[in-house]
Structures are given as structure tokens and as C-alpha cells.
Amino acid sequence: MASNSNTSTSPVASGAKQFALLPKIINGGIAGIIGVSCVFPLDLVKTRLQNQQVGPNGEKMYKSMLDCFKKTYRAEGYFGMYRGSAVNILLITPEKAIKLAANDFFRHHLTTSNGTLPITRQMAAGGLAGLCQIVITTPMELLKIQMQDAGRVAAQAKELGKSMPKVSATSIAMELIRTKGITGLYKGTGATMLRDVSFSVVYFPLFATLNALGPRRDDGSNEAVFWCSFLSGCAAGSMAALAVNPFDVVKTRLQALKKVEGEMQFNGVADCIGKTLKHEGVTAFFKGGLCRMIVIAPLFGIAQMVYFLGVAEAILGMKSGNK
């Protein structure tokens, strides 16, 4: 995520605004919570589609995004569509705070002496920000995926005449810590790093470029009009999401601790890529891609809206740089 300013230029002139971290934390948290609440059912569908493996005779539990949505809603109801959302909502604020603050920090220090920030340095700043956030993202995604995929695993087990015990994010976390220590919560870190770093490398410069193309609010201002920043956030988010979807598929499969009987097990990123390619073909890496684009676009559009409105600044009684 980024502020509404034209981020291809230096933040030095407005350093105080760039490094007001408390508003960034609050705005990031608000944007994350609103975004997660709005799009979580689609994120659940995305997870189940990505974890679904093709059977020996080509059979699939879900034929499409719509089919997965219908079957999940029919079997688990409205609240079933929000399995794992509590974990996301709880951890989304520190994740977004780290991402935003780190991106601003690296952009500030990578700005050239003449006050410009070349595209390569924008990509480096974004990538480093993505690297920093995995300390929160990895356990958050690990626990969320177990909860989101539990219904699919339970449904498959039921067809085989078996039953699966109900689980909670807390019980999963405690079991992992008990058996594997704190490192148990970081299964799939390599794949998470690949996804988040590459996403940030694509998203931040792309948003800055698109945002710079639109009209400014005032003559001589670097601030884009609201609709430009909103659409730039949506477009950059969705395009970056599609570009890194193969890494998201690998991450999701590696972090699924429980598999349906007969499904392949994976030992690391390379093993997952190799087996998936061999048994399902290259199209498997784009499973859930449309879902992910639909999920990510409003998340980043909402983030830009929150920054534009200056929600945190209003709460804190501060003057918003967007007004």
C-alpha cells in the first residue's frame, strides 16, 4: 500500500508526514479490517480452489469459483464463509503497519541526492517492505489456511465415512508450538517470502506510476484526486496479485497441514512446484487467480480510500495531508 502522493518523487519535502507512524498504523488497521470483512468469503474460496488437487480420474470437488462458493455456503452457512477471519482481523493491523512503515523507511533512504526515486529503487523498497512483513504474515496465513480449508477436508472425509474433529486457530497454534516450537508457526516461510516480496516489488511502483497519470487535486499538488488513487490501488493490486499467483498457490499448498486422503504431500517449494507441474500442469499455478484478483483489488482500493479520507488523522485530531 502507499499514500496518495505521487510516490515516484522524493518524500523528503514532506518528511514529517511520511514518518507519522501512528496514523499509518491506524489507517492500515482500519483498511485491513474493512477489506478483510468485505472480501473474506472470496479469499476462502480461493484457498479451497488452490488446495484442491485433481483426482486420478480427473475428478474435482469444486468445478469453478461459483461452484465452490455455492457448495461451501450450502454446507457451512453464512458464518462458515468466515472461517479463519478472526486470525486475519487480529493480525492484519501489525502486518499492514510493518508493510507501510517499512516501505516509507526504505523509500526515504533509497531516495537519490537530487530528490528522485528511480523505478529500480522503488522496486527495491517495495521488496524489502514485503520481506519485513513475513514475520507476521507467515503465522497469520498458516492459521487462516487451516481454518479456511477445514470444511473441504471435512467434506471429503465424510464421503469416505470418516469424521474430522473441529479445530480452532488457538488449538492449532498451541499444538504447533507444543510439538515444533515457535518455528512450527513459520511453515511455508520461503513460499510466503517469494509471494510477498514479489508482490510488493510489482505493486508499489505500479501504483505510483498509475497514480501519477491522473489529475491532481490542486495546481502544483502531488496529491491525486480520490477516484484516481482508488482505481490505481485496485488496478495495481489486482495485476500484482495475478502476477504472483503461482507463488500463492505454492504457499497455500505448503501451509495446508491436513490433506484429503490420497492427496500429495510436499517437501518444500521446489518439491511442490515439481509435483504440481507434473500432475496438474502449468494451469494449476493459476488456480484461484480470479478470486485473488477480486480479493486484492478492493483491499488496496479501500486502503487508498482510508488514506484519502484521513480517518486516523481525524481520530487523532491531526491535520491530514490529503485534505
From TrEMBL:
It is a multi-pass membrane protein. SUPFAM superfamilies: Mitochondrial carrier. The keyword Transmembrane applies. It comes from the Eukaryota. It comes from Anopheles dirus. One of its GO terms (molecular function) is symporter activity. Belongs to the mitochondrial carrier (TC 2.A.29) family. PROSITE patterns: SOLCAR. It is found in: Mitochondrion inner membrane. GO terms for cellular component: mitochondrial inner membrane. InterPro entries: MCP, MCP_dom_sf, MCP_transmembrane, Mito_Solute_Carrier. One of its GO terms (biological process) is malate-aspartate shuttle. It catalyses: L-glutamate(in) + H(+)(in) = L-glutamate(out) + H(+)(out). Keywords: Membrane, Mitochondrion, Mitochondrion inner membrane, Phosphoprotein, Repeat, Symport, Transmembrane, Transmembrane helix, Transport. This is Mitochondrial glutamate carrier 2. Solcar repeats lie at residues 19-109, 117-213, 224-313. Gene3D superfamilies: Mitochondrial carrier domain. The keyword Hydrolase does not apply. The chain crosses the membrane at residues 25-45, 224-244, 293-316. Responsible for the transport of glutamate from the cytosol into the mitochondrial matrix with the concomitant import of a proton (symport system).
